Inverse folding.
């Protein structure tokens, strides 16, 4: 498939190619993987600026996402990708294999550093979902921190850089600048931007801390929201009539006549054992994904919105609602 990047994707690609260290804080659906892969392809084959790349990702993502994304686009077919998962001998073979990109799960970063730290083969590292490196006390962060002097290019990718607040940013930004912007130590960062409650051992951001931190990292990070950049085609509504068979309709009616309490509870929040009919009705609802709506006649409406399919984004979703005649 031919890749036609959106302007925001082209900008992100230029940032990775032009800056040796950059954080891309992009919402889901904006195409972080294809952006990074396109930049890696250019750096390896067009600019000869990188020889080998390590991608650190969650296990499920490491298993297939990066490999599938590279195979999907015509311009990325020449990239050789090795997956370092499985047993220790399998991981060792994958690390030693001739490849442009080696993908490993984040749980094996410590193992990788312990075994290849003395002859580190990667001059570029991409951390997918970098929020998993938000703790400066985590072994994976400390292991990767040891290798920073031997990594000439670092890219961090995430849609949620600060899931618990701006305290989560220090370790991630440290991977990019080794403490230049937010301080060399987490203690200094906390002292400057947080109020400490010693009784509860909590850190609360000082007034204006968010804006101050944002200003400090603005030059090294790119933040994009799907609401601002994702371009969707017009909504398409398609009515699909759905008929329930006799047994499913009977079970649904049985559930409909209930008193409205949660399954497994009587009024007054008293627990009781659900009858067989209740369990069958609940199972039928789960199986059929049925949602009651008194306002409409029988039928179902499926609404789907396709995203930028040819631009590395999500392709949309389809939701169905089932109604029974009154």
């Amino acid at each position: 498939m031919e890749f036609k990047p959106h302007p925001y994707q082209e900008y992100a690609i230029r940032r990775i190619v032009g800056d040796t260290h950059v954080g891309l804080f992009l919402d889901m659906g904006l195409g972080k993987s294809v952006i990074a892969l396109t930049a890696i392809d250019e750096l390896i084959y067009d600019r000869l600026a990188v020889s080998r790349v390590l991608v650190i990702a969650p296990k499920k993502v490491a298993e297939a996402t990066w490999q599938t994304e590279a195979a999907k686009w015509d311009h990325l077919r020449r990239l050789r990708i090795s997956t370092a998962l499985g047993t220790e001998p399998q991981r060792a073979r994958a690390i030693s294999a001739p490849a442009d990109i080696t993908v490993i799960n984040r749980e094996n970063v410590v193992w990788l550093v312990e075994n290849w730290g003395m002859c580190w083969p990667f001059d570029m590292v991409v951390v997918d979902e970098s929020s998993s490196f938000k703790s400066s006390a985590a072994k994976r962060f400390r292991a990767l921190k040891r290798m920073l002097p031997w990594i000439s290019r670092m890219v961090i990718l995430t849609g949620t850089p600060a899931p618990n607040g701006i305290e989560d940013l220090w370790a991630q930004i440290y991977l990019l600048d080794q403490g230049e912007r937010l301080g060399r130590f987490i203690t200094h960062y906390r002292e400057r931007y947080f109020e400490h409650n010693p009784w509860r051992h909590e850190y609360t951001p000082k007034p204006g801390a968010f804006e101050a931190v944002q200003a400090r990292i603005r030059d090294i990070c790119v933040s994009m929201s799907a609401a601002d950049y994702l371009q969707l085609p017009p909504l398409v509504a398609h009515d699909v009539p759905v008929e329930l068979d006799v047994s499913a309709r009977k079970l649904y009616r049985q559930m409909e006549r209930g008193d409205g309490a949660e399954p497994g509870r009587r009024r007054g929040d008293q627990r009781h054992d659900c009858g067989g009919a209740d369990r069958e009705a609940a199972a039928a609802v789960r199986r059929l994904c049925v949602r009651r709506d008194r306002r409409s006649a029988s039928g179902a409406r499926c609404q789907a919105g396709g995203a930028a399919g040819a631009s590395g984004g999500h392709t949309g979703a389809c939701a169905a609602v089932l109604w029974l005649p009154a």
About this structure: The chain has two domains: 7-229, 236-323. The CA atoms of residues 58 and 322 lie 36 Å apart. Residues 236-323 form one domain. The chain has a mean pLDDT of 84.
